[in-house]
Specification:
Helix 3 packs parallel to helix 5 and helix 7 runs parallel beside helix 8. It is built from 9 helices and 8 strands. It has 337 residues and is an alpha+beta fold.
């Protein structure tokens, strides 16, 4: 048994009875029986029109989709509502007047009753139409949001999949150079590289990692580079509030790698890297001393990958500046949840 429907019918019946009295208060003064009949008729009419229109509008939704043919659905819905109202009210009037043997006409004519009931029906139809339209609109919004989420998730997974091969490829390139220069250092490099790459593997399924963990990883990575470059590479990290923030994994390593890849790193021109916080941004800055010829062709993955991941996760793109002899990347700080 549908108790919700029964409760609604009772509420409509009581509301209809009250509206019958409000519509014709003089009917009670002239004849209590006539006033009672009007209230009873109006109560039955409200129940019949409300529930009937709800059912007929659902039938219309079944055969005519709001999203596909909104104008047709609106026209057919109105036509069905008027037809249902006229036919059902005439039937109800005949039942009251012939079986119950009393008059319920408004304005002393059947046309007055039909005009009154049609007005009520249009109000009911507008309510159901508005409800159905809002539901359809909400469904469009939900579907659009779902599609956008699925697209973003797919795009982000593709971006993350770029990072690990990119990191390994460049690390092996660095190792290949070091093998010919110093075998002992190459052995140390391999041992440290295994620890660094463990972090990459552990964080590959994560969208964000604590900034503190990323900094530990970056220090390990820069230690490897110090083995290779010695005093030619200098870095300074000052992030006292790192515990409050998180970051897409391997972001800082990619920036450091790009800095070493695109700039001269020599005894005469050491590369300086500074990382600090400023106005809700993490600032990564290195002095600009571009190489005229690169040992390896740029893949274009690094910075573009970082920009795309930050845009998805924080809805802000990193700011990239090249001025005053410095290359600066400003990463939006993402607070820990």
């Amino acid at each position: 048994m549908n108790w919700k429907l029964i409760r609604l019918a009772i509420i409509l019946f009581l509301f209809g009875a009250a509206s019958g009295y409000l519509t014709c208060p003089n009917c009670y003064k002239e004849s209590y029986e006539q006033g009672r009949n009007i209230s009873l008729f109006t109560a039955c009419m409200w129940v019949m029109l409300w529930l009937g229109n709800a059912y007929t509008q659902r039938l219309c939704d079944k055969y005519i989709d709001w999203l596909v043919s909104p104008r047709k659905r609106l026209f057919v819905g109105l036509l069905v509502a008027v037809f249902y109202t006229v036919s059902s009210v005439m039937l109800l009037t005949l039942l009251f007047e012939n079986i119950g043997s009393f008059s319920v006409s408004f304005g002393n004519s059947i046309s007055g009753t039909l005009i009154f009931s049609t007005g009520i029906s249009i109000i009911i139809w507008l309510f159901h139409t508005g409800k159905d339209f809002l539901y359809a609109y909400r469904q469009i919004a939900v579907n659009a949001e779902k599609l956008q989420t699925e697209t973003i998730t797919s795009r982000f997974e593709a971006l993350k999949s770029q990072v690990n091969p990119h990191f390994l490829f460049n690390s092996l390139n660095s190792l290949s150079d070091l093998v010919y220069e110093d075998a002992d250092l190459a052995a140390k490099f391999i041992k440290q590289l295994s620890q660094v790459y463990r972090y990459v593997l552990d964080s590959r399924e994560k969208d964000l990692v604590p900034l503190e963990e990323e900094l530990k990883f970056l220090n390990s990575y820069l230690f490897l580079q110090k083995i290779r470059f010695d005093d030619k590479l200098r870095f300074e990290i000052d992030l006292p509030n790192a515990a409050q923030f998180q970051i897409p994994p391997v972001s800082l390593q990619i920036l450091a790698e790009n800095a070493m890849k695109h700039n001269i790193v020599s005894q005469e021109d050491p590369l300086h890297i500074s990382i600090y916080e400023e106005e809700n941004f993490l600032i990564f800055r290195n002095n600009l001393q571009k190489k005229t010829v690169l040992k390896e062709e740029s893949s274009g993955i690094g910075l573009a990958n970082i920009e795309a991941r930050f845009e998805i996760l924080s809805h802000q793109k990193p700011l990239v500046e090249e001025a005053g002899g410095y290359f600066t990347v400003k990463l939006p700080l993402i607070k820990q949840l």
